[in-house]
Amino acid sequence: MSANPLPPLFGVNIDPSTTHLDQALIRARLADQSSVELVTIQDHPYNPDFLDTWTLLTSLASRTERVRLMTNVMNTPLRPPAMMAKMAATLDVISGGRLELGLGAGGYEEGMQAWGGIVGSTPGERFQAFSEYLAILQGMLANAGREFSYSGKFYRVDHVVNGPAPSHRIPLWIGAGKPRMLRLAGSQGDGWVIGTIYILPDQLDEVNRLLDEGAVSAGRKPEEIRRGYNLFGVIQTNSAERYSFRKPGILQGSVADWIETLLHYHKRYRHDTFIFWPVAGNEEKQIRIFLEEVVPEVRRKIIDASNTEEEHS
Predict the structure, then answer these.
(1) What sign has the CA pseudo-torsion 107, 110, 113, 114?
(2) How many CA atoms, within 13 angstroms, populate the side-chain half-sphere of residue 29?
(3) Which residues contact 253 (CB under 8 A, 6 or more apart)?
(4) What integer pLDDT is reported at residue 3 of this predicted model?
(5) Do residues 43 and 56 touch, judged by C-beta distance below 8 A?
(6) What's the CA gap between 252 and 286, in Å, rounded?
């Protein structure tokens, strides 16, 4: 399989913390003033220490001008698909066409159940519910201004007319780790996204195989599906700076180490989208180092390698 020809995308994560709202605004402005494309926010409504992701995303849209805004990823069982289509189109219009929509089936069942949002009692039923969710969301966004109906086991809409129309075709990213969801991401999504702490590098070959299978089954080219990695980690600013983490998948190293690692992910595993989630140290400083030292060099080397391949093809 040839390398992914899509140009690389970079972004930073913003935690929707109630106690660090100032940091959310700072990170969004830093990203907006840099060369990165994305600001992303996780969605865990059952966490009492988190603000509502959609409200925060809307606020950031009004405080930024260029950077794209992405849910990473939206908890679909707690947000009905028809309303999600309305919300997405509205925010896309407000932001001038800067919304990218990351969606997931929800991973914390206890929290979703407590909030009355879980759909389906088995993994198979939850997968079917998510598939129906996608069908309604995509159908309503693509048919804004026209009647749309859908009848499934878990969701249905009857002769609804969605509006406003989004300002652009909103890219859909699917957060997935299991085989059926990965195939669905390949067949229906514009991109797939997961964190380094959930899917380790030695699992990425199998992930790519399933994404490719899903794409081919839908008559799509596998290389058209973006592959995103949420990079949980620390950029060391000196050799004596070391952290001990219990959870595998957390990256740790110098600027040069990070550059080498991201280039390896791109060349070896076809990753084209990298979103930084700092987990220790001075996180604002970490963000600045990623934006100013890591991203430009990785982008330059990926583009240079692509140009060299084209010259020799």
Answers:
(1) negative
(2) 8
(3) 235, 236, 261
(4) 52
(5) no
(6) 12
- Give start and end residues of each alpha helix (H) in the chain: 21-32, 53-63, 81-94, 109-114, 123-142, 179-188, 204-217, 255-269, 283-289, 295-312
Distance CA 107, CA 112 (A): 9
| pLDDT confidence of residue 312 | 73
**Token couple for 83:** 């309303």
- Please give the distance of CA 252 from its chain centroid, rounded to a whole number: 22
Q: The whole model's pTM is what? A: 0.95
Give CB contacts under 8 A, 24+ apart, made by 232-237.
232/195, 232/196, 232/197, 232/277, 232/279, 233/196, 233/258, 233/276, 233/277, 233/278, 233/279, 234/278, 234/279, 234/280, 234/281, 234/286, 235/278, 235/286, 235/289, 235/290, 235/294, 237/281, 237/285, 237/289
| 67-111 pLDDT per residue, tens | 999 999 999 999 999 999 999 999 999 999 999 999 999 877 888
How big is the chain, counted in residues? 313
Exposure pattern of 102-132 as b/e (b: 16+ CB <10 Å)? bbbbbeeeebbeeeebbbbeeeeebbbbbbb
In 3D, which of 139, 58, 129, 131 has the Cα closest to residue 99?
Answer: 58
Q: What's the token pair of residue 137?
A: 């969301």
pLDDT digit string (tens) for 140-190? 999 999 999 999 999 999 999 999 999 999 999 999 999 999 999 999 999
Residue type (1 letter), 15: D
Cβ distance 171 to 190 under 8 Å? yes
So what's the pLDDT on residue 213? Answer: 98
pLDDT of residue 1 exceeding 70? no
Rg (CA), the chain: 19
